[in-house]
Amino acid sequence: MAHFAKINEANIVEQVIVINNDVITDSNGVEQESLGIEFCKKSFGGKWIQTSYNANFRGICAFKGARYDVENDIFVDDRPNNGILDWEMP
Fold it and tell me: Residue 3: left if φ>0, alpha if ψ -120 to 50, beta else—which one?
């Protein structure tokens, strides 16, 4: 399965979807991100970038609210403490 993130004009992830690998596999059996991007654009509109569920590329796995860092070609989590709540037990 291949994961793609829809990003808005501010490079914030709005949605992450999963598509079958056969959608991104060319006639030579090689996976091509461009095929997935084209499929997502035609199906849902907007700007799409592939992300890795296992964080094998592009930093972290994209999630709604994450930011795509165009300069470094990675997804980043800008939440304070990376989303970990900082609170004390009574």
Answer: beta
User: Measuring CA to CA, which residue among 57, 45, 46, 42 is closest to residue 3?
Assistant: 57
Identify whether the C-beta of residue 15 lies closer than 8 Å to the C-beta of residue 66: no
Q: Is 86 a domain residue?
A: no
**Residue linked to tokens 């596999």:** 25
Token readout for 9 is 């004009």
Tell me the whole-structure pTM to 2 decimals. Answer: 0.85
Tokens of 44: 């849902």
The domain of 19 spans 2-81
The pLDDT of residue 78:
86
- In three-state secondary structure terms, 7 is strand
Specify if 59 maps to a domain. Answer: yes
**Which regions of the chain are under pLDDT 50?**
none
Within a domain: residue 88? no
Q: Judge whether 89 lies within some domain.
A: no
